């Protein structure tokens, strides 16, 4: 049986305020084309279909259109809810959708109830484990503790119990949305840790033929049978260099696997550039990135004038600007008290201006203004002291 494993669509999400709806539409077109051209028998979507619990109308329309196209191809789809989805909302109408071959699993209590699909070698049982928030599902799953490992272990116990009652040779696939120990993370994923312990060992999924995971955005293999598809698009600059793809999985009659990465269309590459503003504007080495989405980190000692507008002339898709001024601290290791010793109030104030505005000491008119302010404070203090003595 040929499976297409994908996850983390995050429909409706933007990239630094740039809409990704058209890029997401292009991905869904690519997915449907892949299903048709590569004769896929079932599509697996391992959670985070939407980017938020209450998705935009445009995101819902994208999702609805993809489901209709897959149903028109008569290709079954198995989906679970992720931590970004509202399980309740996503699961509305799941019974009716199941009749059309779209199988939504959003209720933790159904972890042990598989979707059964058949090929020439017999049945394959697909178990959908939606994102399991420990504090909310511990009681329903009768987990020993309120941790991610405990609730996933309890859910997998139900999977194994159901699988043990099925005919020998029944193959099994589990969809889950979790953070598995040893996987590579990015800045894009919402933290799901509880008490600092949010990861689960890959051994939780021992005994199944394939575990299709979602949540982490980098396509990666944890073990031969436990894999993340990653997100189809990059959603932060921490994903620069991540391959965006889906797993095409051939599940043999004996449970053996053959896998292939199917690359996803990239709407625009990402690039992280670092240097002074003049270096970024003049260095010919940056020419390949003029069409990329850019995160520029400026190392100028003093903040340049209007840097974004100047960067956009060469890199029109600059969406993130970071300042990390590089300067030599000639007084490193010297205590604050020692640096202030024998300095007047005016000198201290002027030095402070240069400290918070690296590379730009106080201008003459600023020094004059600081002097007037300090003089006014001294006059006020003297007047207060005179009034106090008079009393």
TrEMBL record:
InterPro entries: Calcineurin-like_PHP, DNA_Repair-Maintenance_Comp, Metallo-depent_PP-like, Mre11_N, SbcD, SbcD_C. Residues 1-218 form the Calcineurin-like phosphoesterase domain. The keyword ATP-binding does not apply. Keywords: DNA recombination, DNA replication, Endonuclease, Exonuclease, Hydrolase, Nuclease. Residues 267-353 form the Nuclease SbcCD subunit D C-terminal domain. Pfam families: Metallophos (PF00149), SbcD_C (PF12320). SbcCD cleaves DNA hairpin structures. These structures can inhibit DNA replication and are intermediates in certain DNA recombination reactions. The complex acts as a 3'->5' double strand exonuclease that can open hairpins. It also has a 5' single-strand endonuclease activity. Heterodimer of SbcC and SbcD. This is Nuclease SbcCD subunit D.
């Amino acid at each position: 049986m040929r499976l297409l494993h994908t996850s983390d669509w995050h429909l409706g999400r933007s990239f630094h305020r740039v809409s990704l709806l058209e890029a997401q539409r292009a991905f869904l077109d690519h997915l449907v084309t892949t299903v048709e051209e590569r004769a896929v028998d079932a599509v697996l979507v391992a959670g985070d279909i939407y980017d938020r619990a209450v998705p935009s109308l445009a995101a819902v329309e994208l999702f609805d259109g993809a489901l209709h196209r897959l149903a028109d191809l008569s290709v079954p789809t198995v989906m679970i809810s992720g931590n970004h989805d509202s399980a309740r909302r996503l699961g509305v109408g799941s019974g009716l959708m199941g009749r059309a071959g779209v199988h939504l699993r959003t209720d933790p209590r159904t972890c042990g109830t598989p979707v059964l699909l058949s090929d020439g070698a017999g049945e394959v049982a697909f178990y959908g484990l939606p994102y399991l928030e420990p504090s909310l599902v511990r009681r329903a799953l009768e987990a020993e503790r309120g941790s991610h490992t405990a609730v996933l272990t309890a859910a997998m116990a139900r999977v194994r119990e159901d699988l043990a009652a099925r005919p020998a040779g029944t193959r099994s696939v589990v969809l889950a949305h979790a953070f598995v120990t040893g996987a590579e993370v990015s800045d894009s994923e919402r933290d799901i840790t509880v008490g600092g312990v949010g990861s689960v060992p890959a051994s939780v999924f021992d005994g199944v033929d394939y575990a299709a995971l979602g949540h982490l955005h980098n396509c990666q293999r944890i073990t031969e049978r436990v894999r993340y598809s990653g997100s189809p698009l990059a959603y932060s600059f921490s994903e620069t260099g991540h391959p965006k793809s889906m797993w095409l999985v051939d599940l043999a009659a004996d449970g053996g696997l053959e896998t292939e990465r199917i690359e996803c269309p990239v709407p625009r590459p990402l690039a992280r550039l670092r240097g002074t503003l003049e270096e970024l504007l003049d260095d010919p080495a940056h020419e390949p990135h003029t069409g990329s989405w850019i995160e520029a980190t400026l190392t100028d000692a003093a903040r340049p004038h209007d840097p974004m507008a100047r960067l956009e002339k060469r890199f029109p898709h600059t969406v993130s600007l970071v300042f990390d001024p590089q300067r030599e601290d000639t007084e490193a290791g010297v205590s604050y008290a020692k640096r202030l010793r024998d300095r007047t109030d005016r000198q201290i104030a002027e030095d402070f201006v240069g400290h918070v505005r690296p590379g730009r000491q106080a201008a003459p008119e600023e020094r004059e203004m600081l002097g007037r302010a300090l003089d006014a404070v001294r006059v006020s203090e003297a007047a207060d002291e005179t009034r106090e003595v008079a009393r």
